[in-house]
Design goal:
heterodimer; A: alpha/beta; six-stranded mixed beta sheet; 28% strand; B: 391 residues; alpha+beta; 13 helices
């Protein structure tokens, strides 16, 4: 089995001078291609920091982070941006663009790969995904007309529409009901099984822990345990 | 916008969608850009009218060289020089002819019509070579005292009435209480300091314009022998007239100096020039305000774009897309309203106000640049984006 994410001896600090404090302590982990891995732990333990390091949103200060075979320690801003295009990111606060319809928000996730591509094909792919997520009737709605759960599903569609190799998700089911949460997790599991999409998810939802291939626990910036 | 997004941008027209989402803000921005455009157009229209008037004021005449009093800045500002300059000039090798040009001003009083101020130009009738095409055919006829060629585009003059003027159907009227007869007409038009003009002989001139004599012309017109180059002729005349308080310029240079003087030295020209800058500044401030507000309102969206892999130039592209849209949407009503104002001004003043393609393109390019500058200033706030903060 190949690994999509490998961290070795990762340390991370915030602030400068006397305000400098360490948030991550010597963390090492491996995430297998196609698996669903959950990062768990109390608030402020460093889960999100790890997610942002893997997501190329922060530079790796110490240790090694290999994402899809690419070393991120010392990676240039350009390389980090290129890597971000290979990821699907789901935010807790959905972060939909209020001026764009549900369909257009999903297209934003598809068009990040630049010019080219048939616009009709892109729209068909985005519409198909929204249909799967139960939003087929709402593709022309602006986010203001969608419920919290619907917005989150649009955000999930935006993350998945470009067939990313790795999905990073921060509490993706926090705004969803039980049914929708299970739908999303099963979809991520199916993507892992069928297409090898790797998911690294931060969540407090115990139901998802049970469906995960691996659950990693963090406390005070240190990896405390991992369960398969 | 679909074909634009697919064909030109190759992406969703995010900038346009953002602008359209806040319709009131968009309407205010477009109105602001349109107002700034109108302001610039009107100022440029006045400036252009001033320049056109200056150029037109030289149109009754032609010459290779103009000799003017050293302290004169325009054709009509009233300074004079000594008539001996004519003889000194014509004595120079390569000079074919020289003639005095007299310029004065008289009042044309008519019943039930406001007093009209006329510029009076005078040439010796034998100096036909210095007459422009519009007056050349009538110049012999004005050798008879108190005969004139009337500007048919003078204010409060019916052009059809003026066009009837001929030696067979002379038009009689009075200027400064003296009877004069128009035996022909030409088209020059009113200026900022006069309502129209007359061309007369030098003899008629000294009868019409008090306190002027034939010994003190306003300018001297000089023609060169065929084959005589302008630059050495100018140098030669400057040398020969070095003891005279005059300036020697080519005819074209005299016109351009006059235009430049109007634009930069005359208070009105400076005010109008400042108005153009003010209009541009208003446009920049309005568009900057709109774009800066929009950028601030969408910082989180832009951070999201960055987090999912979009580049900084992409986000700049969204802002510049908005700037471009505001420039285009604001320019069109600005152009339309300025055209209407030009028509009103032309009707009210009889001055040459009119829209032309060159000015329209200049203002459009200026609007684009001003909007892009505003976009660049507004985009500075993007530096505060940290997509990691989205989590």
């Amino acid at each position: 089995m190949t690994t999509s994410i490998v961290m070795q001896g990762v340390n991370h600090w915030f602030g400068d001078g006397e305000a400098r404090r360490q948030a991550i302590f010597d963390v090492s982990l491996e995430v297998t291609r196609g698996s669903l891995t959950v990062l768990a732990g109390p608030s402020g333990c460093g889960k999100t920091t790890l997610l942002t390091l893997v997501g190329c949103l922060r530079s790796v200060q110490d240790g090694s982070v290999r994402l899809l075979g690419t070393e991120l320690h010392g990676a240039s801003a350009m390389k980090q941006q290129a890597m971000r295009r290979r990821l699907g990111v789901i935010f807790q606060a959905h972060n939909l663009h209020e001026s764009l319809t549900a369909l257009q928000n999903v297209l934003v996730g598809l068009q990040v790969h630049g010019r080219g591509g048939d616009a009709d094909v892109q729209e068909a792919a985005a519409t198909h995904l929204l249909n799967i997520l139960g939003l087929g009737e709402r593709i022309t709605y602006l986010p203001a007309r969608l419920s919290g759960g619907e917005k989150q599903r649009v955000a999930i569609a935006r993350a998945l529409v470009s067939n990313p190799a790795v999905v990073l998700a921060d509490e993706p089911t926090a705004a969803l009901d039980r049914h929708s949460s299970l739908l999303v997790v099963r979809m991520l599991k199916a993507l892992g099984r069928d297409r090898g999409v790797t998911t690294l998810m931060v969540t407090h939802d115990d139901r998802i822990h049970q469906l995960a291939d691996q659950v990693l626990f963090l406390r005070d910036g240190r990896m405390t345990a991992g369960a398969n | 916008m679909n074909w634009i997004s697919r064909g030109l941008l190759g992406r969703l027209p995010v900038g346009w969608l953002q602008l359209r989402h806040h319709r009131m803000r968009l309407a205010a921005a477009v109105a602001g850009v349109a107002f700034a455009n109108m302001l610039v157009f009107v100022q440029l229209g006045i400036l252009s009218a001033m320049n056109d008037v200056v150029r037109t004021s030289y149109s009754p005449f032609r010459a290779d060289i103009v000799i003017s009093p050293y302290n004169t800045n325009t054709l009509t500002d009233g300074a004079t020089l000594a008539r001996r300059v004519v003889y000194q000039s014509v004595a120079q090798p390569g000079v074919a002819a020289a003639a005095p040009l007299y310029v004065g001003q008289v009042a044309w009083e008519r019943p039930n019509v406001p007093a009209t101020s006329l510029i009076v130009y005078a040439l010796p009738p034998e100096s036909r070579r210095f007459a422009g095409p519009a007056i050349a055919e009538h110049l012999d006829a004005v050798s008879v005292p108190m005969r004139a060629i009337l500007d048919g585009l003078s204010r409060d003059v019916d052009p059809a009435w003026a066009a009837r003027a001929s030696p067979d159907t002379p038009l009689e009227f009075e200027v400064d209480g003296k009877a004069i007869t128009a035996i022909g007409s030409y088209s020059m038009g009113a200026g900022f300091g006069w309502d129209g003009s007359l061309v007369v002989s030098d003899l008629t001139f000294i009868r019409l314009v008090r306190q002027r004599s034939m010994g003190t012309p306003s300018h001297v017109l000089v023609d060169l022998e065929p084959g005589m180059a302008l630059a050495p002729a100018l140098a030669q005349l400057r040398g020969a007239l070095s003891m005279e308080p005059v300036k020697v310029r080519s005819f074209a240079q005299a016109v351009e100096d006059n235009v430049s003087f109007q634009a930069t030295e005359v208070p009105m020209g400076s005010i109008v020039g400042a108005g153009v800058l003010l209009g541009l500044l208003v446009g920049v401030v309005i568009v900057y305000q709109v774009l800066a507000t929009d950028v601030a309102a969408h910082l989180r969206d832009y951070a999201t774009f960055k987090a999912i892999g979009y580049s900084h130039p992409y986000i700049l592209g969204v802002i510049f897309e908005q700037a471009l849209i505001l420039a285009v949407l604001g320019f069109l009503p600005g152009l339309a309203s300025a055209s209407a104002i030009y028509a009103l001004l032309a009707h009210a003043t009889d001055l040459p106000f009119g829209m032309d393609v060159g000015r329209s393109l200049t203002v459009f390019v200026g609007t684009l640049l001003a909007c892009m500058l505003s976009g660049a200033l507004a985009a500075r706030r993007l530096r505060t984006i940290d997509p990691a903060e989205l989590f």
